[in-house]
Amino acid sequence: MIRTLICAVALLLPMRGPAQIFTLTREQLIQLTAQNPFGRFPDGRPKVPDGLIARARGMSMEEIFAVLPSQGFHNQYADGFHVLYPAKKMVGRAFTVQFMPARPDLAAVINARGRVYNQTAIDMLQPGDVLVADLFGKVNDGTIVGDNLFYYMAKTAKCAGLVVDGAIRDLDGISEIDMPAYFRNAHPSYLTNVSITGINVPIRIGNATVMPGDLVVGDSEGVYFIPPQLVQQTVDDADIVHVHDEWTRRKFDEGKYKSSDIYGSPTDPALKKEYDEYLKKRLDEIRNRK
Amino acid sequence: MIRTLICAVALLLPMRGPAQIFTLTREQLIQLTAQNPFGRFPDGRPKVPDGLIARARGMSMEEIFAVLPSQGFHNQYADGFHVLYPAKKMVGRAFTVQFMPARPDLAAVINARGRVYNQTAIDMLQPGDVLVADLFGKVNDGTIVGDNLFYYMAKTAKCAGLVVDGAIRDLDGISEIDMPAYFRNAHPSYLTNVSITGINVPIRIGNATVMPGDLVVGDSEGVYFIPPQLVQQTVDDADIVHVHDEWTRRKFDEGKYKSSDIYGSPTDPALKKEYDEYLKKRLDEIRNRK
Amino acid sequence: MIRTLICAVALLLPMRGPAQIFTLTREQLIQLTAQNPFGRFPDGRPKVPDGLIARARGMSMEEIFAVLPSQGFHNQYADGFHVLYPAKKMVGRAFTVQFMPARPDLAAVINARGRVYNQTAIDMLQPGDVLVADLFGKVNDGTIVGDNLFYYMAKTAKCAGLVVDGAIRDLDGISEIDMPAYFRNAHPSYLTNVSITGINVPIRIGNATVMPGDLVVGDSEGVYFIPPQLVQQTVDDADIVHVHDEWTRRKFDEGKYKSSDIYGSPTDPALKKEYDEYLKKRLDEIRNRK
Amino acid sequence: MIRTLICAVALLLPMRGPAQIFTLTREQLIQLTAQNPFGRFPDGRPKVPDGLIARARGMSMEEIFAVLPSQGFHNQYADGFHVLYPAKKMVGRAFTVQFMPARPDLAAVINARGRVYNQTAIDMLQPGDVLVADLFGKVNDGTIVGDNLFYYMAKTAKCAGLVVDGAIRDLDGISEIDMPAYFRNAHPSYLTNVSITGINVPIRIGNATVMPGDLVVGDSEGVYFIPPQLVQQTVDDADIVHVHDEWTRRKFDEGKYKSSDIYGSPTDPALKKEYDEYLKKRLDEIRNRK
Amino acid sequence: MIRTLICAVALLLPMRGPAQIFTLTREQLIQLTAQNPFGRFPDGRPKVPDGLIARARGMSMEEIFAVLPSQGFHNQYADGFHVLYPAKKMVGRAFTVQFMPARPDLAAVINARGRVYNQTAIDMLQPGDVLVADLFGKVNDGTIVGDNLFYYMAKTAKCAGLVVDGAIRDLDGISEIDMPAYFRNAHPSYLTNVSITGINVPIRIGNATVMPGDLVVGDSEGVYFIPPQLVQQTVDDADIVHVHDEWTRRKFDEGKYKSSDIYGSPTDPALKKEYDEYLKKRLDEIRNRK
Amino acid sequence: MIRTLICAVALLLPMRGPAQIFTLTREQLIQLTAQNPFGRFPDGRPKVPDGLIARARGMSMEEIFAVLPSQGFHNQYADGFHVLYPAKKMVGRAFTVQFMPARPDLAAVINARGRVYNQTAIDMLQPGDVLVADLFGKVNDGTIVGDNLFYYMAKTAKCAGLVVDGAIRDLDGISEIDMPAYFRNAHPSYLTNVSITGINVPIRIGNATVMPGDLVVGDSEGVYFIPPQLVQQTVDDADIVHVHDEWTRRKFDEGKYKSSDIYGSPTDPALKKEYDEYLKKRLDEIRNRK
């Protein structure tokens, strides 16, 4: 169904209007995400494999931070959200939506071939997707979903979560549904006075630039948007950090060391050797296990 | 006791001073809330019936929002509070208090016949009341109650809750007492450098105008102040929303429909008919049950 | 005209409604401002004499600060305004207006005997008045006047200025009219979605409590609201400060003293004596001149 | 030169990548602004005639507000800027640019056919344009121009002004150049860590949606973005407001009327008739003069 | 180890540089905290006895507030933190650290005898210490510890808690470690672009001035820093408040009294007598028990 | 006089208390600013020569930004001030003062040998100094000077300006005195409830670390604090920028070039050669002139 819709949009594009305000063709989306090393959805969106998504569940924000800036990606983190389930990690593929304040002439163009609104995007979601919506921080009249659509996303669409630079409504109802959500506030009003200006185009959430197909990882602190081409490295490097933490705490537990003897890289050569051997052994165990 | 106090005030009014800074006579309060369809307290304040209060416990903020703005009431919602018990719904009748920054000449007038302070208002509370206090956002020296007065409100006065555009003190102690509270912050200081300038007069809480006798409903998002004349309609309409949600989720659970097929009003005539019949049947059940 | 209106209100009070939401009778206003040592307007509002207003023009905010807190008045200063004419001192008598977010049932009561709105208050202004309006910081739809009403206030009503905890519109037009104004922002929208809930009642502007008849003094920093009973002392004490500043700078100009030798009270007995004699002589000159 | 560039982009579009992240073809821009009643630039952008731009110089923000919301355009105004020349009206045609936080993979796509940066857009400006740039409020490293580029815009490109939801640098140098500018702040840093993601696409500035070719009007309060199709009506209606203001002040100057007799529509039938005749006569004069 | 370090610093002081940017000698620290009535650590820092720390666990912020301002200490409370364990009281001795934005020339002086950084301070912590760090509200690049150092503080150093006017990293990992923490935010970045400019010197946290050895008490509201010389009085006075609360609630539970009859000091002489006897009896019990 | 005071402090240091809370000895100050290439005041503070100060008057914030971050100094700029004279450049040597919220025990130590307060620092100022005071953003009760002390600083002490992360009082009076000032706000209150904790020690102003003797440069945007060792380079490099701007504008004025042909470094080799020759010639002229 999604596939059909996207094809239709692509075919009509040259004839009917500046549809790229709305969405990209498969070819355009592939060009936009040319560095994606994985497969793609029919519409061209990168599809980080389920196996990596599962491994990514074990990563912390700090382990992602250890990779992304060093690769030149300084603007992939957003925080300042209300977090629905602080104790529940969110991991999924970004499905992006951009809203702007409504103006009738723009709305006429956008809705020329049928009304485009929040459900248009929600009905396009795939299992494992995180809906990432730029509602420019709007709270009053800026509620992207209430508990019914949230239920639909969680149960029928099998989504992995929601990130909105805007609001939700029915917080009490939503709190009974087991899907992670990151939002600026809850408000009882309806979503109104806005237009959708892009679906699966690059969007901005706080100071992060999000592209369709990014791996979205959220915890109690905030949300990271990882480009597909960096997912494998990030997951692998996190294993090393996990072992380092494991070893560090063991040594701390011995009570013989100051934090500066151990933390970072051990300064004592014998300790350093002990650590290196431990790291090698543990990485073997972890990676063979997987 | 309250009755006596109010009568005394009313009688003395013409002789002793501009007491309306302090409170209204029964007649004035009745005129101010002329659209109230229910009974009243001896002082004239509207008394939404206990039965409706019980039913209102099942309403969400969104269901109230579905009624009030459509009736021209756009300024009845306040949020941005610290919520003591996010999982506990607050429902009760508004007892309003207005404070202003203290000035000695105004205080002399207010206190001419005995000191008027926070306990003056607290001792007037009736079972089922929510104390709604405008402390103009004051936190330092703006703590309307600590744990002892909060205990008194909850246990002796049998209040339904507290909403203060200001602070409380003794948060740890208050957290052991089972009464909802909405406040801007907690602070260890005493309430000082303010005067009470009105009891049971219209007040402003954030962007909401609150009148004595409004039905106050609070959840994890914020607080609604419902005029008595709209309580019945709000409660009745909420039943319809409940049934709609029930049906929507059943259909979502079938997994055959996109959200846009179901949510809002079903577009398919057969589905629409199915829904209408379901609604009729369930409303009968619900309303007969009550 | 004002007189007639006020009398009518007073007479009708017991019969027609809770008019004190709207205004006070002359008797009530006199009680409220009982410490006023000066004459009054027909409606009871204190009338600080023109002579003192003229002398008050020479006072700074700091000279007022030197008196008010020491008399227990800690909440008489407001700032954070856009100041239309930073180089022009504003001095006049407070005419207070209170707005609240609109609600239809309250509006019905307020407007029962004719619509009450911003012009209702503006048409009651007297020469030398400063309109002080609590619009609770509202900017969008919170514009108390545009350039036409501002022109009317300045030219026809001969007002001394405007202080609004809200907005104005037509800033460019207003900037051509020579009357001081203090406002939170300018906005092109109309004043709407509010009700007037009080005229010449105590109001709050920021952290200041303002009463009708207070002397309002504004400069480039902010606005002071001085109770009538403290105006004489404030003006007199300012003379002493002026002389002190005069003498201090003369001594600084001699270049022989550190600031700590001179500023505050001179520590050297000879200097102290010199200062005391200078003060006595200059005060005689100043006060005899007046 | 601009024409060539645009054509090149259009021709290459189907083959080279998702260029619509960067700009629109002439056809797409025409579709997007289909209601434009005027001519267009070679790239399709609406060109409000110079004559209307000249007349628009006489309009106030309030006169624009009187038209736009009534036509359903509620989101065309932005404020909160530092205004370089508060006393100088800015009027020109919107040339829009959108920035996002930089990410290397997106930058690779954008710069595939040559680096796209702030000067790319600036070199495309036409005489009479206002550069409107969404830099998402960035100040540090968010300076769209310094005094050299500002000089170029003013002198060589003959631009009408600058609106940036971001910063400028070299404020002291810029203050010597006579072109209006609206910016969030000044900062000494360079523009860095951002990518241009759109030129002459719809953008958001504060709560306003801006489209290429909108008429941009700025005064000391803020900035209005008027869709081309509403420019004529706005300019015409402003004439009526000017006459109304003229007449109102004349009547105020007579000193016989309260503001509520005159302001709005006169309540007295004779006055109303006098006003209607005055309006007719003056409009004839004004419009014949033009 | 700590002792050795401090001595070394003291000996080298006159020869090697302005070390007081870094820390104080034992003698200087004793002079700075001359009113301390208790013992001291080898470095001179006051050591509030363990017995008093245990009793202080029962105090509320409000009980501390009842003592400190009355003794002239108005600036000892800080709030606005994220509180890791709102239900867990934090009590310990202040170990203070001051950071400033880095500048290479200052860093060269500070690090002249070995790099001084967050672990330098952390390795000096003593059992029962609360690390109190002024990171001037820095969040991005302002994370004083992650989960490893937090684990070290809790397990190896046996610290009582952390207060940082800045950030932490690894919030999810930290949430598994049982030590109280107060911080402005969590962020995935490393601590960088800062220098330590003081260890165990007076620092500012929000509006509080903190000195090394202050008793730090934190609850769900905020944090109090109690000078050692006021700890005994504060703990003793809290006993009286506890008894007063006990008695007040008993009386409230009888349901015969208004809050104003009981709260504060009973107005009825018989009640007052009853209370005084109750207070005496209970204090005897409590203090003999201890 | 200053010299004497400092010597006295130094001599008494070992006996009387932890004076480094208050100030540094000459030797300590020299160590702290070891990279200073210029002479020093008797107290050890670096003294950037008058000639360089004169040349620095011609620099812009952007020219300083072009040097400092490239030398590793990222935290030397502060803004967000009210600027008393936006059109007047401020250049002078930093005299630093640090305040903290008052606490009686700390105050007792600080004032042990005579009260230390704002005038203590002000009486130590030298001609050409800029008083830079950390008052931690305090406005109410955080006014470092009023018009009398400001007059003293300007006229008697011949200071170059004032930067305070706090407030001033008597803004109207101060506005008549011709000395630059940067402050957070003006307020009528006195300076109270604070202690001076450092004179000529490193302090923080916003995100900048300021050391005594830094060259302070302020314009209408903000304030830069330049370490003495970078002053010569900054001034020299600014000459190059001035010539570049001169040449750029001449070329823009020819109207033949796009901004991207000229700005930055010319891309055309002939243009580049022309520019290089122009630069050489003009630098010769400028530097020989000096």
Features:
alpha+beta, nine-stranded mixed β-sheet, elongated, disordered N terminus, 290 residues, 11 helices, two-stranded antiparallel sheet, homohexamer
Description:
The structure is a homohexamer of 290-residue chains. Chain A has 290 residues and is an alpha+beta fold. Helices cover 38% and strands 24% of the residues of chain A. Chain A contains eleven helices and 13 strands. In chain A, strand 12 and strand 13 form a beta hairpin. In chain A, helix 9 crosses helix 11. The longest helix of chain A is centred in the C-terminal third of the chain and has 24 residues, at 231-254. The radius of gyration of chain A is 22 Å and the shape is elongated. Residues 1-17 of chain A have low confidence and may be disordered. The A-D interface holds A 17-18, 20-21, 24, 28-29, 31-35, 71-76, 100-106, 108-109, 136, 193, 195, 197, 201-202, 204, 207-209, 211, 227, 229 and D 16-18, 20-21, 24, 28-29, 31-35, 71-76, 100-106, 108-109, 136, 193, 195, 197, 201-202, 204, 207-209, 211, 227, 229.
